[in-house]
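Pasting as-is:
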Amino acid sequence: MTQQSPPRSTRGVYGISVTSELTGIGPQTLRLYERRGLIAPSRTGGGTRRYSEEDIYRLNRVSELVEAGVNLTGIRQILDLEAANTELRAENVRLQQEVAALETTEG
């Protein structure tokens, strides 16, 4: 095999009906969330939506925020900020490791 498959968590494997069953979110609402940019399922060559485990996690987070009374615009901003925070934390860890490596080579 010449190409590596993406990690299972990011590979779209669930159809819309299975995703609806797993999350308790109706198919129409899933389509609405996609239109509003809250979720971006992958598509097959024929255009069928395929949701990943990562999408399922994100949809569960959306449900939590809806239950807390946050509107869809607010949810999108919260999800974007959470993603940015995760990236910054990972970058911080990487930089700390880099500093530690430099300190050991200088010492």
